[in-house]
Structures are given as C-alpha cells and as structure tokens.
Amino acid sequence: MQKNGTGLIYDIHDKPPFGKIIVFSLQQLLAIIAATILVPMLVNSYGAVDLQMDTAAALLGAGVGTFVYILFTKAQCPVFLGSSFAFLSALYSATVFGYCGIIVGGILAGAVYVVIAIIVHFTGTKWVSRLLPPVIIGPTVAIIGLGLSGSAISNFTSGLDGGYNLIAILCGVITFIATVLAATFGRKTMRLIPFIIGIIAGYIACLIFSLIGIACNAPYLQLIDFSIFKDAFSPFTVSSIIHVPKFAFVEAGREIGSFEWGNLGTLALLFMPVAFVVLAEHIADHKNLGTVIGRELVDSKAPGLTRTLLGDGVGSMVGAFFGCCPNTTYGESVGCVAITKNASIYSIIGAAGFSILLSFFTPFVVFVRTIPSCVIGGICVCLYGFIAVSGLKMLQPVDLSNNRNLFVVSAVFVPGIGGLTLDFGARGDGSPVIQITAVAVALFLGIFTNFILGRKKADEAPVKTSGKKGK
Q1: N or C: where does the chain have the smaller number of CB atoms within 10 Å of the terminal CB?
Q2: In a domain, 354, yes or no
Q3: Contact 248, 320 (CB under 8 A)
Q4: pLDDT number for residue 406
Q5: Residue 289: alpha-carbon gap to chain centroid
Q6: How far apart are the first and last CA of the chain?
Q7: pTM for this one?
Q8: Please, which residues have CB within 8 angstroms of residue 471's CB and are 6 or more apart in sequence?
Q9: Considering the domain boundaries, does residue 467 fall inside one?
Q10: Number of domains comprising the chain
C-alpha cells in the first residue's frame, strides 16, 4: 500500500508486527554498522599507541546518539546516527590530547550545531532554502553517493590481505545480486530485508571459499579471518559473551587531572570547522530523506531544521562522550529506507536499541568484524548508488538548458567527484592536520557560483520560442 504517493510500505508512524520490527531493526543496524565501527578502527591505525578507541563503545555511542536525535525531532525523521568520517582528520590529531581532548572536541563540534539551530529558530529557514536550492543540493547529494563509490569498490575487490582478489569480487557480486533480487522480485517481507538476505548470501559464499582455501592450503581463497573468533573465544571466559565497552568518558576521568585546558583553542580549530562541513551534509541528508518519505523535513515545523540540528549536534556530543566518535546522520540509513520502502520510526528505534545492547554482546561484535569487506562492498554498491540517484532526482525540476544552472551544477559535480580538498598543515607522514572534504569544497564553490550568477538576471529564464520561423 502506497503512502504519501511515495510507494512506502510502512510510513513513519506505522508500527509493523513485533517480529518484523526486530528483523527490520537488525537490517538498519547492519546497513550502518560497518561504517560506524570503521571510524575508530581507522583512528587506531594512526593514533597514539596508548589511546585505542573501542569499536563497541562507538557502537553504543551511535545508539544513544540516535535516541537523542529521535527525541529532539519528535520521532519524525527515520534515520540513524553513526560515527562521522568527516571528523577522521580531527580525531587523528586529537589523539595526542588524550580522551579528554577528543571529548572536548566533540562537544565543541556539537556546539556549532546548537548555535546554528538557535539562529535558525529566530531567523527561519528561508535563507537556507535560498542558500541551498535544488540546483545546489541535488548535485551535492549525488556526489555524497558518488564520492563514496571508491570506498565501495575498494571493499568490493579486496581479499583478506587487502589486495585485489577475483574471488572477493565474485562474492561481492553474489551479495549485490542477492540484495537486488530480494528487493525487486521478493515477496513483501523479502523486499523489506534485502540487505540481510544479501549479507547472508555473501557470507555463505565467502565461508565456502574460505573452507576450501584452508583445506587446500590456498590463501587466495580465504576471505574470512577466523583468527578473530579464536582471539575472542579462546580461552572461553565470561568476557567471551558479555564485555563492557571501553567508554571514552571513563578513560577521560582517569586523565582529567593532567589535561591542559590551554589546548582548548587548538581543539576548537580542529573540530569546529569540520562541524560546518557536516552541517552541509546534514541538510543534504534531510532534503534527500524528505524526498524519499514525501515530507518536507527542513523548511516545515515537522520537525524543522532547528530540531534536526539540535538532535544531530547533541547526538554528536553523546557519541564523543561514550565512544570518542562524533555522530552524523547516515546516508546509508536513508538509502536503506529508500530501497526497502520502510520508513517506520520503530525500525530506527529498534536499531538504536540493538546498537546499545549488542555493543555488550561479544559474539555479535566479533561476527560483524568477520564480515568480509567484499560483502560490505556489495551492499554499499546498492546504498551509495541510491544516494547518488536520489540527488539526481532532485535535479529533475531544474532547467539544465539554462547556462546559469548548468555552471552551478558543474561547480559542484567536478570538484566533488574529482576529490578537490583543502589541506592545512602536515603531519610527519604527510597527511594534513585539517582537511576540508571534497563534498564541502564542492558545496561552497556551488554556493559561490550561484551567488555570482544570481546577480545576472538576463540568463535565468529558459528561452521560449513561438514555434514559428523568423522573429
């Protein structure tokens, strides 16, 4: 049954049967979990040896942050909050300031959202719509998906050693095809859980090849790292079942006496500029989600930009407080809603609840860590593709025969897809201390181009012809 003309099977406040809510919630969690735990893993690969972020704590922080977001938005926005990749560079640099420094940085970033939310509350959102019309927000959403395509393909083609692997590609294709078939030709329930079906199919394929590889001593065929199971369950103890995550605020409490508050300015420079970058993605995600569910989420009062900003900002603070990772709304979550046609807020609430509970459940965390990257890649091909297409759909009402619009879209697409970043400072390994992402650079360039061309009125309207020759 269609809702709001969008073809939704479950609308925002529809409550599926309890058993289905469990399954739908797990699917939402699986759609975002890889990215959520990857952020602390990437920081650990670079950060100080004595500061190791806990993936389970990041998962818990994402769940609590999502609950905060749901409360602020009055359960009007079916989207999950997870660890933000935009803060990676800031987190890398902040490791030298310890857990206290990271939490303070996350709070400062969240404060940017709060301040802008207050401004929006008193000034309204019309200026936001003028600043980010469809000619800008459409290609921005598209490049969010297209910009992630490199990550999807990297996972799609990677074997256990991280190198190019044809068997991994085969399993990635199996994952992708299983997901597509379930979403397109499956019965009602199957169409609502295509990612779970895809992950199961891909994992089974990887398991078969891995067992053959072990039996034949062929490392190339081994796609699952079974040593993760061994490390978690041998020897078998209570922590093999239940394990308390390494909370950031607990670790910060041990070092707060030695934290130098004189570093506050440095932390502000690291985290606060990134908040403006994520702010642009926040607006793009909500414009996209609004298109998917057939509701205006930014310009209206249900919930409105003020509440979504407060939810995202405070949720980001919570993510840093528990798991060191500031949160953001996830395009993967929006893509999951778009593909499954399930916008029920109960699925998001359930996903947040599972995110908290399962962060204490060792077998689940271990299982997620063993999901081969090629399987994740197969799922991401679907998710990121839907994000890109959603952005292109926003461009449908835009007249691209108008040079003004054509140049504005070009100003967003080329720098965004080409990967134009602004890097400031350099670490010992050559990586930047502060990096303005390609999405942010493209967005700012699009806004600037639109502003400049907006001064010229002559070329704004499409050329009209009478259909007659001559004058």
Answers
A1: C
A2: yes
A3: yes
A4: 93
A5: 13
A6: 52
A7: 0.75
A8: none
A9: no
A10: 1
